[in-house]
Amino acid sequence: MKKRSMLTILLAVCLYGSNVFAQTKVIAHRGYWDCEGSAQNSITALNKAHEVGAYGSEFDVSITADGIPVVNHDDSIQGFCIETSLYEQLKDLKLKNGETLPTLEEYLIQGKNNKGTQLILEIKPHKRVVNEDKAVVAILYLVQKYQMEDQVEYISFSMNICKELIRRAPSVQVSYLRGEVSPTDLKILGFSGLDYHYKVFDKHPEWIQEAKDAGLTINVWTVDDPAVMESFIAKNVDFITTDKPVQLKEMIGK
């Protein structure tokens, strides 16, 4: 009888242990940029996120007028609108740390070398829906080219972009950013997770359990306040996106 009870316990641990002992994971917002020699969305920020042991490095991608995906947070850089500019016009522009504006291809090549670090790829909303669709096609092509389907996870504020990702690549991980859709509805639409600003959960605290019940991953952004970090660690969300990945990792490890 004791042997059977022990086997039952071991089986339960095997089946559910990943949930019972799961720790909140750290995502570096725009890479780990708040350190010497780094800059937001730079290759250095990607490497620094890897060096400090972040689960993932988040970055932003838009497509140029001639179809080249580039990494930048805003829809413009130094007076050039990315969506309406040729890559030739942008390729020599400098980031704050002296690096040139990276292409997604350059980012993926470096990211593939950073084993164990997920690439959290945000596709930015574009002014024209047709350009959003082109961006999805170009980005999926590059990820497949470098065989990084398991290392890249997608997020977006654009419902159109998310739906296009799910339609074209139903096996990829896609989380929605805007914050107005319930977990139940996201599940119906085919999303794998939600990635909402932490204040969304002040308005809808029930969405955390609803997301867990639906089997969706939960990410909150952008959390730099230690008290807010502690709150969401206690809620056992899957991921926290932060500009302070080292501090957050230390808090999780206590």
Structural overview:
- This protein is α/β, with parallel strands linked by helices and 254 residues long.
- It has one domain: Phosphatidylinositol (PI) phosphodiesterase (TIM Barrel), CATH 3.20.20.190.
- Helix content is 42%, strand content 19%.
- The protein has helices at 2-20, 43-51, 87-90, 104-113, 129-145, 159-168, 183-189, 200-203, 206-214, 226-234, 245-253, and strands at 25-28, 56-63, 69-71, 76-77, 80-81, 118-123, 152-156, 174-176, 193-197, 217-221, 239-242.
- The protein has an 8-stranded parallel β-barrel, surrounded by 8 helices. The chain has a two-stranded antiparallel sheet with strand order 4-5.
- A hairpin with a 5-residue loop joins strand 2 and strand 3.
- The longest helix has 19 residues, at 2-20.
- The two termini are 38 Å apart.
- The model is unreliable at 1-20 (pLDDT under 50).
What is the gist of this entry?
The protein is an alpha/beta fold and 254 residues long.
**Largest sheet, order of strands side by side?**
1-2-6-7-8-9-10-11
Cα radius of gyration in angstroms: 19 Å
**Largest sheet: number of strands, sense, barrel closure:** 8 strands, parallel, barrel
Which overall shape is indicated by the principal axes computed on the Cα atoms?
Answer: globular
Kindly identify the CATH topology: TIM Barrel
Low-pLDDT sequence parts: 1-20
Beta strand %: 15-25%
CATH architecture: Alpha-Beta Barrel
Ends distance: 38 Å
CATH homologous superfamily, by name? Phosphatidylinositol (PI) phosphodiesterase
In total, how many beta strands?
11
Helix content: 40-55%
Mean pLDDT: 94
Helical stretch tally: 11
Helix-strand makeup class: alpha/beta
Order of helices and strands: HEHEEEEHHEHEHEHEHHEHEH
